[in-house]
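Appendix B. Raw example, untouched.
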Amino acid sequence: MIVSLWTHSAAAQSPAGKKTGSGTDAPVAAERTPDPKPREEADGAPELTAKASQAIDKGLKYLLSTQNKDGSWDSDGKGTRAVAITSLGLMAFMAKAHFPGSGPYGDKLDRAKDFLLRKAKEGTDGYLGSVMYEHGLATLALSEMWGMTRNAKDDDAIRKALEAAVDVIVRSQNVGGGWRYQPQMDAGQDTSVTVMVFVALASARQAGVMVPSETIKRVVKYLEGAWNAESGGFTYPSHGNQAPTIACTAGGAYAAQLAGQRDAEMVAAALRWLGKQAPGIFAGARYYYYAHYYAIQAMVQASDEQYAKWYPRIRDALISKQQANGSWSKGKQGGAGYATPMAIIILATPHRYIPIYQR
């Protein structure tokens, strides 16, 4: 089960001068240049509505109000899963083009960035967090921040932490192609963890970090085994003879797309399976925010048509689920939690500011 954590064109350069490109010749998704600003319902493409923009801004203000003194965010106000939630918090702001060191939130995002870099320095082997879920999210955040801080010293520190984090992922891949909770080759594998860390690898590769072709080939092999050909969905264990889940199917489809399998039958079948879950999938689902975090990105990768059908439904559902204080968290857990930054990232999909969330 999913643990309760929960439970960039080749010639283009970032503002800091970082060239984006491939670290290996294995196929991954091509990048899309982000639009300078979102449009509302232009040319039939679903874009941000005024309500969606307001919901994002309200959510970001909530995150600012729950940021800890050390720059982190966590799930309960006590430091639990701080590496993971801080990484998601940073990406929530970056999804709206707010980056460390610049703009109205530059100082606060600098503090969050510094928190992750401190955690990277505290470790001796490149491992970030306490489980591979956290490590994957931290790797992804570092990759998407690299070259965007407008500070050469920070850029170098991020690069070193990112390369070390990628090395942890590559060397801990199971012989079957996947990963599980800890960075050990013999620790087993499951679809949820595998997707999380592979998305991070794909992002790092887009940014120019070397990722072996063999690593990607093994991921494809794993996904083929986790795909249930009869139903079309992906299952949680490394064999597809169990019932598929929404989160694993959405994540499996997205990971397969990033691994160069965009036209594979397992991707097409997974998208069809997800479509059959509508409209109920928008009202509620197990691991709701986690599942939709992947589902919207799979639709982006699939086609403009698929995205145009999916985004307005999850957009409106998320707006209706937002709490009065700007969060997407119920109860008094005390921290930002993972739901709020994930909801913001989903809502901000039309911006396309984060390369790994582009097609």
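End of appendix B.
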